[in-house]
């Protein structure tokens, strides 16, 4: 059985919206087991301000906040602070 993995990257996340017209990032078949990586919804800057050590913040979260342009974020996508 295939075990597809969908890692959280600027190219694979939906930040602040879900749009049926977006191109799928993963296609699976019935019976496949899928591994999906998720991220916090808090920004790296907000986490650091709250006392989280920079080394404890996932690199993928930093990449998504830096790599998803404002034009690709929906109304729930917020702004990087």
If you had to describe this structure to a student in words, what would you say it looks like?
The protein has 2 helices and 2 strands. The chain is mainly alpha-helical. The protein has one domain. It has a two-stranded parallel sheet.
Order of helices and strands: EEHH
Number of DSSP strand runs: 2
The biggest beta sheet reads:
2 strands, parallel
Strand order across the largest sheet? 1-2
How does the overall form come out from the CA principal axes?
globular
Topology:
Elements: E1 5-6, E2 35-36, H1 44-49, H2 59-67
Parallel strand pairs: 1-2
Short description:
It contains 2 helices and 2 strands; from the N terminus they run ββαα. With 81 residues, it is mainly alpha-helical.
Jot down its keywords.
81 residues; 2 strands; globular; 19% helix
């Amino acid at each position: 059985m295939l075990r597809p993995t969908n890692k959280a990257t600027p190219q694979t996340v939906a930040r602040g919206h879900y749009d049926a017209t977006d191109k799928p990032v993963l296609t699976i078949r019935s019976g496949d087991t899928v591994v999906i990586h998720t991220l916090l919804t808090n920004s790296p800057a907000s986490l650091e301000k709250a006392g989280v050590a920079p080394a404890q913040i996932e690199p993928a979260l930093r990449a998504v906040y830096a790599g998803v342009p404002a034009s690709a974020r929906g109304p729930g996508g917020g702004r990087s602070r």
